[in-house]
Amino acid sequence: MHGELLKAECQHCGAVVDWREDLSIETACPDCGLPAGMRPHVVWFGE
Question: How far apart are the first and last CA of the chain?
């Protein structure tokens, strides 16, 4: 794994934000507001 587990990245707009909460599939991006796009700001092995 490479990246930062204390940040989240929006798959819709690309915003990277500090994140300390749980992420779920419904989590909305604080920048663009679109739901279901936030993921940990990491690259998993095999990705």
Answer: 10
- pTM value? 0.85
What is the domain extent for residue 18?
A: 2-43
CATH code, domain with 39:
2.20.28
Asked if 41 and 4 count as a contact pair (C-beta separation under 8 A), the reply is yes
Domain count within the chain: 1
Is 41 part of the annotated catalytic residue set? no
Task: Render pLDDT for 18-44 as a digit per residue (tens, 0 to 9).
Answer: 999 999 999 999 999 999 999 999 998
Question: Among the options 1, 2, 20, 22, which is catalytic?
Answer: 2
